[in-house]
Amino acid sequence: SAGRTGTTVIPAEAQAHLSARFVPDQTAEAVGKALERHLREAFAAMGSPNCLRVRVVSSGDHWLGDPGSRYYCAAARAVQESWGKRPIFIREGGTIPATRCLEACLGAPAVHLSLGQATDNAHLEDERMSVQALHKGRDALRRFFEAVAEMHAGDGAAAEAAG
Fold first, then answer.
1. Is pLDDT at 52 greater than 90 in this prediction?
2. CA dist., res. 149 & res. 145, Å (int)
3. Does residue 122 contact residue 116 with C-beta atoms inside 8 Å?
């Protein structure tokens, strides 16, 4: 940049960090290879004497929940009781790598229960959440956890009797 001296400095290197989102039935490995192939082809087409280095820092495969599971049904009831409206299931949040990992490691099903709304601008400039959504979200979570506790009310006694 010109800065105070008025001279222009050309940096020795430039970097970019990319985040790719994908859909079920795509793997992080396949998307990563396709992205790298595209970048290399586009860079080669420029005929630049510079070099391109592509490095994958982290990755994780998609996760797809089961909206017919008893946990999703309990979450839907909790949201409906809190908001007075039936929730709409959409396929978002499937590229949160920790979800698939936690589900596999813990041997327990996961549920993504969004507390926000489409107007919240999630992951965008001016991201926000209304106070009403926070309060109703808290109520929905309470109702959901109560429903899950009821589902498993006898689990502890059965485990104690067996042990």
1. yes
2. 6
3. yes
